[in-house]
Amino acid sequence: MRSMTLAAALLGASALAAMAQVPEVRVLTYDSFTADWGPGPAIEAGFEATCGCDLIYETAGDGAAMLARLMLTGARTEADVVVGLDTNLTHAAAASGMFAPHGLSPALALPIDWADPMFLPFDWGWFAFVHDTTRLPVPPASFEELIASDLSVVIQDPRSSTPGLGLLMWVRAAYGDRAAEIWRGLAPRILTVTPGWSEAYGLFLEGEADMVLSYTTSPAYHRIAESDPTKDFAAFSEGHYLQVEVAAVLAGSDQPDLARQFLEYLVSEAAQSVIPTTNWMYPAIDLPGGLPEGFDGPRPAVSLLFTPEEAAAQRDPALAEWRDALAR
Amino acid sequence: MRWRADPPLIRPAAALVAAVLVALNLGALVMVALRAEGGEGWQAADTAALRFTLVQAALSALVSVALAIPVARALARRRFAGRGALVALMGAPFILPVLVAVAGLLAIFGRNGIVNDFFGFLGFDPVSLYGLHGVVLAHVFLNLPLAVRLLLQGWARIPAEHHRLAAALGFGGWARFRHLEAPMLARVVPGVLAVVFLICLTSFAVALTLGGGPRATTLELAIWQAFRFDFDLGRAAMLAAVQAGLGFAALAALALVTRPEAALGGLDRVAPAPPGGLARAFDAVAIGAAGLFLLAPLGAVLARGLPRLASLPAPVWEAAGRSLIVAAASVVLLALMAAALTLAALRARWPEAVGMAALTASPLAIGTGLFIAVHPYADPAALALPVTALVNAAMALPFALRALIPAARRAEAEHGRLSLALGLSPGAHLRLVLWPRLRRPAGFALGLGAALSLGDLGVIALFSQPGSETLPMQMHALMGAFRMADAAGAAVLLMALAFGAFVGLERVIGGRHAGA
Asked: How many angstroms separate the CA atoms of B419 and B425, rounded?
């Protein structure tokens, strides 16, 4: 009896010692990624099943907040991997010198070519204006048709919101030097500008506005989670700007191998099959089983995307022309 | 004046509280500035943001207080069934998270709201909520309750004997106002104006969402932009300093116009019956209109969220538990800080100024400064909840002091000499003279502190990690994941907890007749 207790104690102690030696991988991401209904829990369980490590999430509000957090903590950051920056942030992120090449070459399925050695896409989507087909059966088919209509739209502030900044880039990519003119035309159509996506989407669902700036994948949420087929996006003939969400390894990571393993897992079929119905974006690879029903609607024909350098250079002038046009 | 020597602990305690507050406000700002490298200077857009910030805050304060005066007057002099419940319920909008309040307002004043349905029925064009008027409407909705409560406390401090004397002398309505109420208002209104002005000074989500676009940019949004869009800490610190400067200027103006409490005591007896007739009708309209304006949006929030309350996912309930713990810790801290500063404020003016200063700081700047300060020494995530409790207590302190200090000064002015003549010890003076007159404002202050802490979504957002989300954060997370119906349910839970904590503490600490 006594020896059994001793054995049990020894076993317990060795298990404790083993636990203490399990390496930790810290992943900095945005908070909706780690929510119960986000992709985080399934990806954590899946990775931990094979890595012999403990995956720990740290969160910030969104991609911009994550980058600001990294800049604040600098080289002292304990994060090994960052998940959830986009191409509007990667130029500044690369310039910080805090990231290392990932060295992976998965078979990506994006509407554009991707060859960035540091930032690896894990999902993507097109920005689009979403409407309710019962209230607006025939949506405008371009920015110019929207300008000519008497519809009201809600957009997000580019200074505090990812889609808001995406729309600035969209107008610039589609219209170049005519962007300021387009914004002046859009100004009367804009009901209000919200600080974040959720406020804008909430206003739209309340019926305050006819359309809201969101993603082409937003209607899939309503179709799949709510069995509500009445939401759709308006396909614009100018094309749609892309948001590509990326992950990267931090140069200062004390677990560089595990960090790379995590990126590899993140673009594997197991993790990618979770993405569509948790993050409500398109997966970064072709899934053998195809996309869930509800994601299979028509897609925009033309994709627009600035390189990170172009996006960084366009940002301040685009913001200035947006503010001038809407502050009138 | 021998006994007036303070109880030994008050002075050091007040100094300690002041040090904590200064460290939180100025220290955080300095931390941000120290971490900055260069930075863009003042820009033309900042002048526009400054102007809009001032205009919306000033208008919101003026309208809130102007509307609060007839409402508080009516509530102060009328007694009717359900009055206590009405006063308590009308306080609810102030403790709502702003996004919940906006949702409630939209249900009433939005494009598909009740008001526009009615206008459409009458054949009028719909009225748009978006623009400066929408911002002011929302700020009045949020702050009218506080203004009413602070003014009610002013009315409660008019001794009943004065009303009796006025009645005996046959004063009409005007004479009564001029001799009794106007002098009280002259003392109370500047403080209430300043408090509402300071709250609206750091407004961000309401101003932007209802303001209709970038012309509704406030300084707080410009600070947000500097932090996150430009990652320009120097600029963020400069803008935060300008915002704090505005607040200090408002506080300085308040100090200039505040008159000392007069030592004209009464025996705290019941006042005579108020006038009837036209005055009664006027009071009924004031109470009815304010009640409708404040309660209809709350009703809309309840109607939407109640059906989802029972089926809320588990993380929401866990977050609610965490929020309650943070609020409890925050209330204890608030009680200690408020007690030290209130007692110290009987002898000096600086404690009041220091306590009010917490309102002038940008929540984002405080959070970032704390993050920079804490990060080299500890994991900010581990400190998320304690830091939130402390910052919430500091943020609620100005409201607590606004309620406590005038009442304490008044009690001291009226009864201090009597206590002295009777040779009461400081302890007995505190227990027998001050506390009975302070427990009502104290109950109000701590109840408010608990409710504000429950609804706060400021500093925690910068520190928080998975597993330490508070209820307001969970509500936002639900909204961010398309789950508007669950978010509405969480909003009702939040409202119920905040309101329950407010009313509960007010009754327990303030006594049976609290809130009157």
From this structure: 8
- State in Å, rounded, how far the first CA of chain A is from the last one: 85
Q: Does B273 touch chain A (CB under 8 A)?
A: no
Q: Where in chain B is the domain with CATH 1.10.3720.10?
A: 1-35+312-516, 43-260+272-301
Q: What is the CATH number of domain B43-260+272-301?
A: 1.10.3720.10
For the segment B230-241, what is each residue's pLDDT rounded down to a tens digit?
888 888 888 888
- Say how far apart CA B494 and CA B513 lie, in whole Å: 26
Q: What is the 3-state secondary structure (H, E, C) of A144-196?
A: HHHHHCCCCEEEECCCCCHHHHHHHHHHHHHHHHHHHHHHHHHHHHEEEEECC
Multiple choice CATH, B1-35+312-516, 1.20.1250.20, 3.60.10.10, 1.10.3720.10, 3.55.40.20: 1.10.3720.10
DSSP code per residue over A221-250: HHHHHS--TTEEEEPPTT-EEEEEEEEEEE
Chain B residues 4-63 with CB within 8 Å of chain A: 35, 45, 48
Record the pTM: 0.86
Place of tokens 């209820």: B471
Scanning A37-56 for CB atoms below 8 A from B yields: 37-38, 40
| A2-124+243-283: in CATH 3.40.190.10 | yes
Task: Please provide the CATH number assigned to the domain covering A125-242+297-326.
Answer: 3.40.190.10
* Interval B94-146: pLDDT, tens: 877 787 888 899 889 988 888 888 888 888 877 888 889 999 999 999 999 98
